[in-house]
Amino acid sequence: LNQVYTLSNGVQLPKIGLGTWQTKKGEETYQSVMMALKNGYRHIDTAEGYQNEASVGQAVRDSGIPREEIFVTSKLESHIKTYEGALEAFEKTMKELKFDYLDLFLIHAPWPWSEMYKDCNEGNVLAYKAMENLYKEGRIRAIGVSNFSPNDIENIIQNCDVVPHVNQIGYFIGIDQSETIDYCRKHNIFIEAYSPLGIGYLLSNKDIQKVAEKYNVSPAQICIRWCLQKETAPLPKSIHENRIIQNTEVDFEISDEDMEFLDTIKGDPRRWD
Ligand code: A2P
Protein backbone atom coordinates (compact mmCIF):
# COMPACT_ATOMS: atom_id res chain seq x y z
CA LEU A 1 0.00 0.00 0.00
CA ASN A 2 2.77 2.38 0.71
CA GLN A 3 4.73 1.87 -2.44
CA VAL A 4 5.33 5.21 -4.10
CA TYR A 5 5.61 6.90 -7.46
CA THR A 6 8.13 9.70 -7.95
CA LEU A 7 7.13 12.92 -9.72
CA SER A 8 9.45 14.77 -12.10
CA ASN A 9 10.57 17.08 -9.26
CA GLY A 10 11.48 14.16 -6.97
CA VAL A 11 8.39 14.40 -4.75
CA GLN A 12 6.96 10.99 -3.93
CA LEU A 13 3.33 9.97 -3.60
CA PRO A 14 1.76 6.71 -2.44
CA LYS A 15 0.47 4.69 -5.39
CA ILE A 16 -3.14 4.46 -4.21
CA GLY A 17 -5.03 7.47 -2.84
CA LEU A 18 -8.47 7.82 -1.30
CA GLY A 19 -10.88 9.73 -3.55
CA THR A 20 -13.43 12.01 -1.87
CA TRP A 21 -15.52 13.32 -4.80
CA GLN A 22 -19.17 12.84 -3.83
CA THR A 23 -18.26 12.08 -0.23
CA LYS A 24 -20.45 14.41 1.82
CA LYS A 25 -18.75 17.06 3.93
CA GLY A 26 -18.86 16.64 7.69
CA GLU A 27 -19.10 13.25 9.33
CA GLU A 28 -19.09 11.18 6.11
CA THR A 29 -15.81 12.63 4.84
CA TYR A 30 -14.29 12.71 8.31
CA GLN A 31 -15.03 9.03 8.87
CA SER A 32 -13.98 7.95 5.38
CA VAL A 33 -10.60 9.68 5.66
CA MET A 34 -10.13 8.49 9.23
CA MET A 35 -10.85 4.85 8.25
CA ALA A 36 -8.48 5.12 5.30
CA LEU A 37 -5.65 6.52 7.44
CA LYS A 38 -6.26 3.90 10.12
CA ASN A 39 -5.93 1.21 7.45
CA GLY A 40 -2.69 2.46 6.01
CA TYR A 41 -3.64 5.01 3.36
CA ARG A 42 -1.25 7.95 3.23
CA HIS A 43 -2.67 9.73 0.19
CA ILE A 44 -5.96 11.67 0.17
CA ASP A 45 -7.49 13.53 -2.77
CA THR A 46 -9.90 16.41 -2.22
CA ALA A 47 -10.90 19.67 -3.97
CA GLU A 48 -12.38 23.01 -3.13
CA GLY A 49 -15.29 21.96 -5.33
CA TYR A 50 -16.05 18.88 -3.23
CA GLN A 51 -16.78 21.18 -0.26
CA ASN A 52 -15.21 18.69 2.12
CA GLU A 53 -11.70 20.08 2.58
CA ALA A 54 -12.38 21.09 6.20
CA SER A 55 -13.42 17.52 7.09
CA VAL A 56 -10.37 16.09 5.30
CA GLY A 57 -8.06 18.45 7.21
CA GLN A 58 -9.72 17.65 10.52
CA ALA A 59 -9.34 13.89 10.00
CA VAL A 60 -5.69 14.25 8.94
CA ARG A 61 -4.95 16.30 12.06
CA ASP A 62 -6.97 14.06 14.42
CA SER A 63 -5.36 10.88 13.04
CA GLY A 64 -2.20 11.59 15.01
CA ILE A 65 -0.12 10.64 11.97
CA PRO A 66 2.62 13.20 11.29
CA ARG A 67 1.44 15.63 8.59
CA GLU A 68 4.53 14.97 6.46
CA GLU A 69 3.65 11.28 6.18
CA ILE A 70 0.37 12.04 4.40
CA PHE A 71 0.15 13.24 0.81
CA VAL A 72 -2.83 15.57 0.35
CA THR A 73 -4.07 16.98 -2.95
CA SER A 74 -6.57 19.77 -3.44
CA LYS A 75 -7.79 21.59 -6.53
CA LEU A 76 -8.47 25.12 -7.66
CA GLU A 77 -12.15 25.61 -8.53
CA SER A 78 -12.54 25.43 -12.28
CA HIS A 79 -14.15 28.87 -12.76
CA ILE A 80 -11.18 30.69 -11.20
CA LYS A 81 -9.03 31.87 -14.09
CA THR A 82 -7.16 34.89 -12.71
CA TYR A 83 -3.86 35.31 -10.87
CA GLU A 84 -5.34 37.03 -7.81
CA GLY A 85 -8.33 34.69 -7.78
CA ALA A 86 -6.05 31.67 -7.68
CA LEU A 87 -3.96 33.10 -4.81
CA GLU A 88 -7.12 33.85 -2.82
CA ALA A 89 -8.59 30.42 -3.50
CA PHE A 90 -5.38 28.76 -2.36
CA GLU A 91 -5.50 30.68 0.94
CA LYS A 92 -9.11 29.61 1.38
CA THR A 93 -8.17 25.98 0.78
CA MET A 94 -5.38 26.24 3.35
CA LYS A 95 -7.77 27.81 5.86
CA GLU A 96 -10.23 24.96 5.34
CA LEU A 97 -7.56 22.27 5.62
CA LYS A 98 -5.69 24.14 8.38
CA PHE A 99 -2.35 23.02 6.92
CA ASP A 100 0.97 24.88 6.69
CA TYR A 101 1.65 23.49 3.25
CA LEU A 102 -0.10 21.43 0.58
CA ASP A 103 1.40 18.45 -1.23
CA LEU A 104 -0.29 18.91 -4.60
CA PHE A 105 -2.54 21.62 -6.03
CA LEU A 106 -4.24 21.18 -9.39
CA ILE A 107 -6.32 23.37 -11.70
CA HIS A 108 -9.53 21.37 -11.47
CA ALA A 109 -10.47 21.72 -15.15
CA PRO A 110 -9.47 23.81 -18.18
CA TRP A 111 -12.90 25.47 -18.21
CA PRO A 112 -15.64 26.32 -15.70
CA TRP A 113 -18.03 23.39 -15.18
CA SER A 114 -20.85 25.72 -16.27
CA GLU A 115 -19.14 26.44 -19.63
CA MET A 116 -17.39 23.24 -20.60
CA TYR A 117 -15.02 23.50 -23.59
CA LYS A 118 -14.90 27.31 -23.43
CA ASP A 119 -11.44 28.58 -24.42
CA CYS A 120 -9.74 29.71 -21.20
CA ASN A 121 -6.12 29.51 -22.35
CA GLU A 122 -5.23 32.95 -21.04
CA GLY A 123 -6.96 32.40 -17.70
CA ASN A 124 -5.32 29.02 -17.22
CA VAL A 125 -1.90 30.61 -17.65
CA LEU A 126 -2.75 33.33 -15.10
CA ALA A 127 -4.05 30.81 -12.55
CA TYR A 128 -1.10 28.50 -13.14
CA LYS A 129 1.39 31.36 -12.68
CA ALA A 130 -0.07 32.01 -9.25
CA MET A 131 0.38 28.33 -8.41
CA GLU A 132 3.94 28.44 -9.74
CA ASN A 133 4.75 31.25 -7.35
CA LEU A 134 3.24 29.37 -4.42
CA TYR A 135 5.30 26.36 -5.48
CA LYS A 136 8.48 28.42 -5.67
CA GLU A 137 7.73 29.84 -2.21
CA GLY A 138 7.53 26.29 -0.87
CA ARG A 139 3.86 26.41 0.07
CA ILE A 140 2.98 23.59 -2.34
CA ARG A 141 5.26 20.62 -3.02
CA ALA A 142 3.97 19.92 -6.54
CA ILE A 143 1.54 21.56 -8.96
CA GLY A 144 -0.46 20.43 -11.92
CA VAL A 145 -3.71 20.21 -13.76
CA SER A 146 -6.76 17.99 -14.03
CA ASN A 147 -9.00 17.10 -16.98
CA PHE A 148 -6.48 18.82 -19.30
CA SER A 149 -6.09 17.73 -22.93
CA PRO A 150 -2.69 17.79 -24.67
CA ASN A 151 -3.57 21.20 -26.17
CA ASP A 152 -4.54 22.60 -22.78
CA ILE A 153 -1.20 21.46 -21.33
CA GLU A 154 0.78 22.68 -24.32
CA ASN A 155 -0.62 26.17 -23.60
CA ILE A 156 0.75 25.96 -20.04
CA ILE A 157 4.15 24.63 -21.12
CA GLN A 158 4.56 27.34 -23.77
CA ASN A 159 3.70 30.19 -21.39
CA CYS A 160 4.92 29.10 -17.93
CA ASP A 161 8.18 27.95 -16.29
CA VAL A 162 7.23 24.81 -14.41
CA VAL A 163 6.00 21.87 -16.48
CA PRO A 164 2.96 20.49 -14.59
CA HIS A 165 3.97 17.58 -12.36
CA VAL A 166 0.59 15.87 -12.62
CA ASN A 167 -2.48 15.61 -14.83
CA GLN A 168 -5.38 13.97 -12.99
CA ILE A 169 -7.88 12.48 -15.43
CA GLY A 170 -10.85 10.15 -15.46
CA TYR A 171 -9.16 6.85 -16.19
CA PHE A 172 -10.62 3.37 -15.90
CA ILE A 173 -11.12 0.21 -17.95
CA GLY A 174 -12.98 1.06 -21.16
CA ILE A 175 -12.08 4.74 -21.56
CA ASP A 176 -9.58 5.76 -24.23
CA GLN A 177 -7.13 8.28 -22.80
CA SER A 178 -4.17 7.17 -24.91
CA GLU A 179 -3.58 10.53 -26.58
CA THR A 180 -3.44 12.40 -23.28
CA ILE A 181 -1.35 9.71 -21.61
CA ASP A 182 1.17 9.53 -24.48
CA TYR A 183 1.53 13.31 -24.44
CA CYS A 184 1.98 13.41 -20.66
CA ARG A 185 4.56 10.61 -20.66
CA LYS A 186 6.57 12.49 -23.27
CA HIS A 187 6.68 15.52 -20.97
CA ASN A 188 7.22 13.60 -17.76
CA ILE A 189 3.78 14.55 -16.42
CA PHE A 190 2.45 11.92 -14.04
CA ILE A 191 -1.09 10.57 -14.56
CA GLU A 192 -3.47 10.19 -11.63
CA ALA A 193 -6.63 8.17 -12.29
CA TYR A 194 -9.87 9.45 -10.79
CA SER A 195 -13.01 7.29 -10.83
CA PRO A 196 -10.92 4.11 -11.32
CA LEU A 197 -14.10 2.06 -10.81
CA GLY A 198 -16.02 4.13 -13.39
CA ILE A 199 -17.89 5.66 -10.41
CA GLY A 200 -18.80 2.10 -9.50
CA TYR A 201 -20.47 1.20 -12.81
CA LEU A 202 -17.63 -1.06 -13.93
CA LEU A 203 -18.23 -3.40 -11.03
CA SER A 204 -21.22 -5.01 -12.75
CA ASN A 205 -19.40 -5.45 -16.08
CA LYS A 206 -19.53 -9.15 -16.97
CA ASP A 207 -16.08 -9.26 -18.58
CA ILE A 208 -14.44 -7.63 -15.57
CA GLN A 209 -16.34 -10.00 -13.27
CA LYS A 210 -15.00 -12.93 -15.29
CA VAL A 211 -11.39 -11.79 -14.86
CA ALA A 212 -12.03 -11.11 -11.16
CA GLU A 213 -13.22 -14.68 -10.63
CA LYS A 214 -10.11 -16.03 -12.29
CA TYR A 215 -7.85 -14.18 -9.83
CA ASN A 216 -10.19 -14.76 -6.90
CA VAL A 217 -10.49 -11.03 -6.25
CA SER A 218 -13.33 -8.50 -6.59
CA PRO A 219 -14.07 -6.49 -9.77
CA ALA A 220 -12.97 -3.36 -7.87
CA GLN A 221 -9.58 -4.95 -7.24
CA ILE A 222 -9.22 -5.74 -10.96
CA CYS A 223 -10.03 -2.12 -11.83
CA ILE A 224 -7.51 -0.76 -9.34
CA ARG A 225 -4.80 -3.24 -10.26
CA TRP A 226 -5.34 -2.38 -13.95
CA CYS A 227 -4.64 1.32 -13.18
CA LEU A 228 -1.46 0.38 -11.31
CA GLN A 229 -0.21 -1.80 -14.14
CA LYS A 230 -0.78 1.21 -16.43
CA GLU A 231 1.63 3.12 -14.14
CA THR A 232 -1.04 5.54 -12.92
CA ALA A 233 -2.18 6.36 -9.39
CA PRO A 234 -5.79 5.25 -8.83
CA LEU A 235 -7.96 7.29 -6.44
CA PRO A 236 -10.88 5.00 -5.54
CA LYS A 237 -13.64 6.59 -3.45
CA SER A 238 -15.50 4.73 -0.75
CA ILE A 239 -17.22 5.50 2.52
CA HIS A 240 -17.27 1.86 3.66
CA GLU A 241 -14.39 0.51 5.67
CA ASN A 242 -14.46 -3.00 4.15
CA ARG A 243 -14.25 -1.49 0.66
CA ILE A 244 -11.61 1.05 1.67
CA ILE A 245 -9.49 -1.88 2.86
CA GLN A 246 -10.32 -4.13 -0.10
CA ASN A 247 -9.30 -1.40 -2.55
CA THR A 248 -5.73 -1.60 -1.27
CA GLU A 249 -5.42 -5.39 -1.35
CA VAL A 250 -4.16 -5.53 -4.88
CA ASP A 251 -0.87 -7.31 -4.44
CA PHE A 252 -1.37 -9.63 -7.41
CA GLU A 253 -0.38 -9.42 -11.06
CA ILE A 254 -2.82 -9.40 -13.98
CA SER A 255 -1.16 -11.33 -16.83
CA ASP A 256 -0.29 -9.54 -20.09
CA GLU A 257 -2.93 -11.63 -21.81
CA ASP A 258 -5.65 -10.59 -19.36
CA MET A 259 -4.54 -6.93 -19.52
CA GLU A 260 -4.98 -7.15 -23.29
CA PHE A 261 -8.42 -8.66 -22.80
CA LEU A 262 -9.40 -5.85 -20.39
CA ASP A 263 -8.15 -3.36 -22.98
CA THR A 264 -10.70 -4.68 -25.48
CA ILE A 265 -13.53 -3.45 -23.24
CA LYS A 266 -14.63 -0.17 -24.74
CA GLY A 267 -16.82 2.70 -23.65
CA ASP A 268 -17.29 5.11 -20.78
CA PRO A 269 -19.63 3.39 -18.32
CA ARG A 270 -20.59 6.78 -16.92
CA ARG A 271 -22.46 7.34 -20.18
CA TRP A 272 -24.10 3.93 -20.32
CA ASP A 273 -26.18 4.68 -17.27
P1 A2P B 1 -19.32 3.62 -1.50
O1 A2P B 1 -18.65 4.95 -1.34
O2 A2P B 1 -20.73 3.60 -1.03
O3 A2P B 1 -18.50 2.48 -0.94
P2 A2P B 1 -14.97 5.60 -8.21
O4 A2P B 1 -13.84 5.55 -7.25
O5 A2P B 1 -14.68 5.04 -9.56
O6 A2P B 1 -15.56 6.99 -8.32
O7 A2P B 1 -16.14 4.66 -7.63
C1 A2P B 1 -16.77 4.99 -6.42
C2 A2P B 1 -18.06 4.19 -6.28
O8 A2P B 1 -17.76 2.79 -6.15
C3 A2P B 1 -18.83 4.57 -5.05
O9 A2P B 1 -20.21 4.45 -5.36
C4 A2P B 1 -18.41 3.53 -4.02
O10 A2P B 1 -19.46 3.31 -3.10
C5 A2P B 1 -18.19 2.31 -4.87
N1 A2P B 1 -17.11 1.42 -4.39
C6 A2P B 1 -15.87 1.77 -4.01
N2 A2P B 1 -15.12 0.70 -3.70
C7 A2P B 1 -15.92 -0.38 -3.86
C8 A2P B 1 -15.74 -1.77 -3.70
N3 A2P B 1 -14.57 -2.27 -3.30
N4 A2P B 1 -16.79 -2.60 -3.96
C9 A2P B 1 -17.97 -2.10 -4.37
N5 A2P B 1 -18.21 -0.79 -4.55
C10 A2P B 1 -17.19 0.08 -4.31
Automatic annotation (TrEMBL):
Ordered alphabetically, the record's keywords are:
NADP, Oxidoreductase
Site: Lowers pKa of active site Tyr. Where?
A: K75
Q: Which GO terms describe its molecular function?
A: oxidoreductase activity, acting on the CH-OH group of donors, NAD or NADP as acceptor
* Pfam families given in the database record: Aldo_ket_red
Q: Which residues are recorded as binding substrate? A: H108
Coiled-coil annotated spans: none
NADP-dependent oxidoreductase domain residues: 15-265
Q: Which domain of life is it from?
A: Bacteria
* CDD domains registered for this protein in UniProt: AKR_AKR1-5-like
Presence of keyword NADP? yes
Q: Which residues form the active site?
A: Y50
Query: Which InterPro entries does this one have?
Result: AKR, Aldo/ket_reductase_CS, NAD(P)_OxRdtase_dom_sf, NADP_OxRdtase_dom
Question: Family per UniProt?
Answer: Belongs to the aldo/keto reductase family.
Task: Please name the PANTHER family in this protein's record.
Answer: 2,5-DIKETO-D-GLUCONIC ACID REDUCTASE (PTHR43827), NADP-DEPENDENT OXIDOREDUCTASE DOMAIN-CONTAINING PROTEIN (PTHR43827:SF3)
Under which name does UniProt file this protein?
Answer: Aldo/keto reductase
Q: Which organism is it from?
A: Peloplasma aerotolerans
